[in-house]
Amino acid sequence: xxxxxxxxxxxxxxxxxxxxxxxxxxCSRIGQRVLHIDSRSYYGGNWASFSFSGLLxxxxxxxxxxxxxxxxxxxxxxxxxxxxxxxxxxxxxETIQHTEAFCYASQDMEDNVEEVGALQKNPSSGVxxxxxxxxxxxxxxxxxxxxxxxxxxxxxxxxxxxDREISLEVTDVEESVEKEKYCGDKTxxxxxxxxxxxxxxxxxxxxxxxxxxxxxxxTYLQIVKEGRRFNIDLVSKLLYSQGLLIDLLIKSDVSxxxxxxxxxxxxxxxxxxxxxxxxxxxxVFNSKELTMxxxxxxxxxxxxxxxxxxxxxxxxxxxxxxxxxxxxxxKLTPNLQHFVLHSIAMTSESSCxxxxxxxxxxxxxxxxxxxxxxxxxxxxxxxxxIPQCFCRMCAVFGGIYCLRHKVQCFxxxxxxxxxxxxxxxFGQRINAKYFIVEDSYLSEETCSNVQYKQISRAVLITDQxxxxxxxxxxxxxxxxxxxxxxxxxxxxxxxxxxxxxxxxDTYLVHLxxxxxxxxxxxxxxxVKKLFTPYTETEINKEELTKPRLLxxxxxxxxxxxxxxxxxxxxxxxxxxxxxxxxxxxxxEHAVKQAETLFQEIxxxxxxxxxxxxxxxxxxDGDDKQPESSGTNNVIVATLESSEEGKNQESPEKHLQN
Amino acid sequence: xxxxxxxxxxxxxxxxxxxxxxxxxxxxxxxxxxSSHYRATIGVDFALKVxxxxxxxxxxxxxxxxxxxxxFGNMTRVYYREAMGAFIVxxxxxxxxxxxxxxxKNDLDSKLTLPNGKPVSVVLLANKCDQGKDVLMNNxxxxxxxxxxxxxxxWFETSAKENINIDEASRCxxxxxxxxxxxxxxxxxxxxxxxxxxxxKVASCxxxxxx
Lengths: 657, 211
Fold this sequence. Notes:
The structure holds 2 protein chains of 2 kinds. By secondary structure, chain A is of the alpha/beta class. Among the domains of chain A are: 6-92 and 379-449 and 560-599, 3-Layer(bba) Sandwich (FAD/NAD(P)-binding domain), CATH 3.50.50.60; 279-366, Guanine Nucleotide Dissociation Inhibitor, domain 1, CATH 1.10.405. Chain B has helices at 22-31, 77-80, 95-99, 101-111, 134-139, 142-150, 166-181; strands at 6-16, 41-44, 46-54, 57-65, 85-91, 121-127, 154-157, 192-193. At the A-B interface, helix 7, strand 10, helix 8, helix 9 and helix 13 of A face helix 1, strand 2, strand 3, helix 2 and helix 4 of B.
């Protein structure tokens, strides 16, 4: 029985995203009794990362438009006393929209392929495999469930539907016909392939070309088989090496749980070409793209930026100008202006003032060289590790964790207006003093006045780097400036297999921008500039210089950052709201939010102090002090809480599925 | 003293139901002491045990306790990540804890494999053997069979209280890990950045613009 859960806590935290997890660690670290719950089966909420099969499962869950068969939830209305009222929470996650997945890699494969080795079990395997196509609310014929088929038959069968889809979404109808196909794990995907008739031709072309320099042919089957090698983040972020998150990880010693790779290259996209941006002194002098004169100009300008505050005369007159205007006055060639604006300041052209730009450059330069040659770090196994590291810290200090645990409502005391408890999906009341909840759990009613922004995301699996060099293990960031003024720049992060986020011989590419339309409408043009769909390249050999797309996913994610507390209706004063991921490159927003909320709740306590020194270990009873020689990072104390002893710690009910 | 030629660092997990004696085993093994008082594990991340395996080899074992409160099997990936072996512990006086063993093993195998895709070595510990042997009596000779079926590399009757068989179980696990390791050399990751409290000083970098 899951009711072995204690019912008295100091802090209940709902949602396991980054700000909530930092708060959980911070609260448990100062001795608060923390209950940390998430309605999902995985840690991190929209900050999570998934194996390939895990991502397909996630995708399927979000493609199910209709309500997931409402689990038998205990009626809670009866549990509310006369002096109380309830604020119900949202039943369904609505932060992800417009999911569209495309498979370009060859799908010649046997049935029922599964990941090799351990499989991230499908948490919702009980749900039937029917689904609603998200793309096209007009819906699909019911026969889309027929599972095994021969692709020729299938294309004939689906012609009508394909036509309909094409008119909606595909621009070059000449080249591709879309059909959908069931893949190994029965997740619906679009297959983009040549026109039906070309299929055999293109195959024979490949065979003819067998003697040419071989690019690794990665099939969909391989991606599925090696699916565990992938750790695909829902948000794409990097850590500034002097940023708030790195500082917090180090200060709190949560850094012991996480390792990083340096981002090795900053790239720029100019005139249809990807180039490396020189950002360190060595880079500048080794750069082949820059002339001698340009090198001097750039060094001079960067040196000025590092201490720009001491030379107000240099920029005072341009305070009101945009940064790009200012750069034009600085004797920089267009080439350099582009590098400085897009790749170093990483700002969008229109909005950034001179001061903001100079500040951004200074910050960039100050982050250089702390750990490597670019200002950025990427966590091994993906950004999704980081919330879990804080959760581990929280658990080590006594926090209790429950995933797959739904909360039905807050119970508010009418008189004081304060929240007293939550009622979970078992109908159990759990009391606490403070409640922290992530935005997506709040009901429509609570959020009716809130205006949300959206983030457009794409996740690509490709077969080569967008800028090939001697080493195939580069981690790169590229800012693609907007095609038209007013639009948003697109941030591209390319991860190699040594970041432990993708299988060997592939790259995992994340695209991010703030949304103006659906993710695919916002990002597809950039994808097309940088990549070639796998199937087309077999015909157009001249296009082989571009990396090929093996698989692509587009989706929009709600950006609930920057919402003032007063926008929410009727929140009790002791309920605090954390936002989901923001669109920014760094994690500064999440860290600031966690620290601010912590200090609101516990104004006199220190935020995430380092764990106690091993020498301060206190053993209970008559135990001797441990021999210090044999210990490292061991802090043992004991908790005299009586309810602990008898509870079964069985994985049984929680591990099924 | 002659410097040993080889040093190995292995992360080992200690898994099992609440109250089967995971923390006691770790404390007995690492600190050579035992207390029947503690109930939950607070502030323990991992304990380090250094083994002088042979004149040429030093093995450092990081024993990771399941933080007492991750009780619903919701361990974070941080816990599993890069572990090389595990002990699954049950309490011989409580049959239910033995019934959970297969579930813990399945859970472990679903979340953790060696870099070569094989499951990690796991040793089964029948703990509190000083207090009676009910479960073992019932299962009798079937324990060997059980281990075979579920992929344990071995099993031991242990007592953290009486210090029975804990060193032996550990040696058994380490022996299997060492035997597996020869084909795992590729797993060593170059260029990994590990920021720590001690490394806060800014590295001087000749290639840096501000130098």
